[in-house]
Design brief:
Strand 1 (56-60), helix 2 (64-76) and strand 2 form a beta-alpha-beta unit. The protein has a domain at 56-157: Toll/interleukin-1 receptor homology (TIR) domain (Rossmann fold). It is an alpha/beta fold. The protein is built from 6 helices and 4 strands, in the order H-E-H-E-H-E-H-E-H-H. Helix content is 52%, strand content 13%. It starts with a helix and ends with a helix. The model is unreliable at 35-40 (pLDDT under 50). Strands 2-1-3-4 form a 4-stranded parallel beta sheet, sandwiched between helices.
Length: 159
C-alpha cells in the first residue's frame, strides 16, 4: 500500500465518520427539541413544541412494536398518522391510495422491502408528495424527519 492510497483511504473514512456524526447530531437535536411526552399537558409552559397541525404523515414499513409510539409522537405534534406495513400484511395496491391522502411519506430504510420502497417512491413522484427516508425504524429518526424545513413549511401553510 502506497502512502497516497493510505491517505485516500483515511480521507474517505474521515468523511464517512463526519457524515455519521452530523446525522447523529441532528438526531440528538431532535430529541432535545421535543419537550412533549405522550400524555403530557401540551399547554404547559416551556420551550416551543413540535407543531404540525394539518399535516398527514404516511409511514411505510417499520417494526410492528414501534408503530404505536410513532403514531403517538406524530399525533402529539398535531399531525395525522397513517401506516402501511410495506406489504407483509397490507397489499401494496393500497399504497397509492394512502400516499394520495398523505402530505409526507416516510419509510425506515432498515425495515422496508426494496420493492415497497420503489412503489412508494413512484407513488410520491406521481402525486408530488414529499418522500423522506428515515435512517432507522425509530422515533428519533421520525423526529428528525418531522423537523425538516419542508415539513414545517407545510404545517405553517396549513391545509
Amino acid at each position: 500500500m502506497t502512502a497516497r492510497t493510505a491517505v485516500a483511504e483515511e480521507r474517505s473514512a474521515r468523511l464517512h465518520s463526519e457524515r455519521e456524526n452530523e446525522a447523529l447530531r441532528r438526531e440528538l437535536e431532535a430529541i432535545a427539541s421535543v419537550t412533549f411526552a405522550v400524555g403530557e399537558d401540551r399547554d404547559a409552559p416551556g420551550p416551543p413544541r413540535l407543531r404540525l397541525g394539518g399535516i398527514t404523515l404516511l409511514c411505510i414499513g417499520g417494526r410492528t412494536h414501534h408503530i404505536a409510539r410513532l403514531r403517538a409522537v406524530t399525533e402529539a405534534s398535531g399531525a395525522t398518522f397513517l401506516h402501511h406495513d410495506g406489504g407483509s400484511e397490507h397489499h401494496l395496491n393500497i399504497l397509492a391510495g394512502l400516499a394520495s391522502q398523505a402530505d409526507v411519506v416516510v419509510f425506515p430504510v432498515d425495515c422496508i422491502s426494496h420493492h415497497a420502497a420503489q412503489v412508494a417512491n413512484q407513488c410520491c413522484r406521481q402525486s408530488g408528495k414529499q418522500f423522506i427516508p428515515l435512517r432507522f425504524a425509530s422515533v428519533t429518526s421520525l423526529l428528525v424527519a418531522l423537523r425538516r424545513p419542508e415539513v414545517n413549511r407545510m404545517a405553517e401553510a396549513g391545509p
